[in-house]
Amino acid sequence: MAVTKYPLGVNYDYPLILKKLLLTPLDYAPTQEIIFGGRRVYDYRGYVRRLNSLASGLNRLGVTRESMVAVLEYNSHRYLECLFAIPMMGATLHTINWRQSPEYVAYAIEHSQVDTIIINSTFLPQLEKIKSHLDGVKRIILIRDEGYDGQSLLKIDAEYEQIIADGFDSYDFPDLDENTVATLYYTAGTTARPKGVFFSHRQIVLHTMALGLSSGCFHTRSGFSAFDTYMPLTPLYHEHGWGMPYLATMVGARQVYPGRHNPHSALELIRDQKVTFSHCLPTMLHMMLSDPLVDEVDLSKLKIIVSGAKSAVNWLRTP
Amino acid sequence: MAVTKYPLGVNYDYPLILKKLLLTPLDYAPTQEIIFGGRRVYDYRGYVRRLNSLASGLNRLGVTRESMVAVLEYNSHRYLECLFAIPMMGATLHTINWRQSPEYVAYAIEHSQVDTIIINSTFLPQLEKIKSHLDGVKRIILIRDEGYDGQSLLKIDAEYEQIIADGFDSYDFPDLDENTVATLYYTAGTTARPKGVFFSHRQIVLHTMALGLSSGCFHTRSGFSAFDTYMPLTPLYHEHGWGMPYLATMVGARQVYPGRHNPHSALELIRDQKVTFSHCLPTMLHMMLSDPLVDEVDLSKLKIIVSGAKSAVNWLRTP
Fold first, then answer.
1. Is residue B209 part of a domain?
2. Do residues A187 and A208 both lie within one domain?
């Protein structure tokens, strides 16, 4: 009985790769906005154009499918760009936990053979401290932020915004094998040295689908949907902000990226941008609820996922 | 830079196969009930036990991973069993459209080299008409239904319920390659002869995830969730009832299978079983809304997907 063995997909084996997640927002929500701080930076069409410019600019600088690209940045629209564009090129995005010690960062960079670093200017002093560990790094790309005086002990090869300005509007993102490594993250090293964890394109796409499925459909549902305004408070280096930016992008939700923030400014953004969905560690929620501003912010529409530690129920207040 | 090429999944490459869809209902809803007609037949634990018994019984009769198993049956809990157990064995489930002409059924059976037929006794006369086309069929398994007099021109090899009664409570469903063919369906043949369409395990699992994702999370959301009571009115042979039974099972929803039904009895089930989610062709909805009983049934909680033809809006009434 040979009939059950007919090959499937002889025309096109649809791969589970990150670039496929961009098809739905372009279709359903091309004009939905993405916010950075209090400012609208672009809609989804503009966002995807930036991914193309970023990839073509990085490629011109020498970044290829073989590259290991470390990112040290706040929760910004630029981080959202890196989460897609770098793996979509076939390169590996190494999300660095910039809250860790210089020893940790040095180890993670050396051990994973990072050749490219994209870094917010605020974190330059941390990188300067481990200068002797950067021999394998071929290029450093700067995201210029407030307070940067233009001075650094390190050789800066390019500026992030300039790369995009010089890039092309289109880039031919390849149809990668879905098992290609997309991202890398090092554990905090509570036992001995930090350990690197890879995520493949297939793993991230399936995680994104499962997250969306459980959000709306399962007993455990969080209620997240395309109608929410989403803002990540968990750092994006931490397992891609628990995977939520991928889901928020796939469904074409309105997104707000806080950049450098504190509990007070996060509350301001929730109020001003009418944020309805977020996620963070209990400590952050605790600090927001302890801020005097909380009494002036309507939290009744806000859904928030808390994880990473147990919540102390006694300090949870109903709005 | 070899680090991006480290092989992933050296321990276990999680395959997208149908048996994985059963993990969540057993975890989240083991005691949720599945109804046939007005009667509770089992909960999800009992359902999965039946899948094991059915597979072991079929295997004892000679059904293997090479088998092509045709099913002619109403929308019953038994069809739900076939939708999972047969592909999970590695065999192919051929869902036959029993509303088609005998010529169509004969062609679909011969062309796909069916070796096993599972058939509701109501459809035996149709099969008797095409007896000369059944030379390749090695076994016929009967689902005894109302009105069967025990007489047939065909050799009946076993009865469905007896196979299950004689089967073992456990069956070692293999970890198939996710690209293994799971099901087969022949188009209605509006242009020339019917054409067979295969669905792989991977395709069905991804469709199930995408359906659930769109149900709860997307702009197009239907609002289906684990909290619904689900009843399929679209025939299950038609692209697995549009994929909904797989989703309803995966989320562990309460399910109601109507068996042989008409618009009137469907309305009775909606009323008595408090059905909140269904799907059908516009004709069926039209007939239900034209039935006098509709005035006594509260349809305010019912969500229904209509597809396959355009709805005539003028006959849609608000409850």
1. yes
2. no
The single-letter code of the amino acid at A60 is: R
Which H or E element spans position A8?
none
For residue B74, give Cα distances in angstroms to B9, B101, B158: 41, 17, 19
Which ipTM score applies to this complex?
Answer: 0.87
Counting the structural domains of chain B, the total is: 2
Q: Which long-range contacts (CB under 8 A, 24 or more apart) does B154-157 make?
A: B154/B124, B154/B127, B154/B128, B157/B61
Q: What is the pTM of this model?
A: 0.90
Range of the domain at A283: 203-306
- Whether residues B218 and A251 touch (CB distance < 8 A) is answered with yes
Note the Cα A37 to chain centre separation in Å. Answer: 16
> pLDDT tens for residues B83-110?
999 999 999 999 999 999 999 999 999 9
Angle (nearest 5°) at CA B6 between B2 and B12: 175
Task: Convert the pLDDT of each residue in A112-135 to its tens digit.
Answer: 999 999 999 999 999 999 999 999
Domain holding B287: CATH number? 3.40.50.980
**A34 has which bridge partners?**
A42, A255
Q: Which long-range contacts (CB under 8 A, 24 or more apart) does B24-28 make?
A: B24/A218, B24/B250, B24/B251, B24/B252, B25/B249, B25/B250, B25/B251, B25/B252, B28/A218, B28/A219, B28/A220, B28/B226, B28/B251, B28/B252
Residue B116, beta-bridge partner list: B69, B139
Integer-rounded Cα radius of gyration of chain B: 20
pLDDT digits (tens, 9 = 90+) for A282-297: 999 999 999 999 999 9
Task: Please indicate whether, in this complex, the C-beta atoms of A224 and B210 are within 8 angstroms of each other.
Answer: no
**Hey, are the CB atoms on B113 and A198 less than 8 Å from each other?**
no
Q: Check whether residue A287 and residue A246 sit in a common domain.
A: yes
CA–CA dist B209, B244 (Å, integer):
11
- pLDDT tens digit string along A205-221? 999 999 998 888 777 67
Residue B84: inside a domain: yes
Kind of pairing, strands B303-306 and B277-280?
Answer: parallel
Residue numbers of B between 252 and 281 with CB closer than 8 Å to A = 252
- CATH number of the domain enclosing B168: 3.40.50.12780
- The C-alpha atoms of residue A206 and residue B244 are separated, in whole angstroms, by 20
CA distance to partner chain B, nearest, from residue A4 (Å):
6
**Per-residue confidence (pLDDT) for residue B8, from 0 to 100:** 54
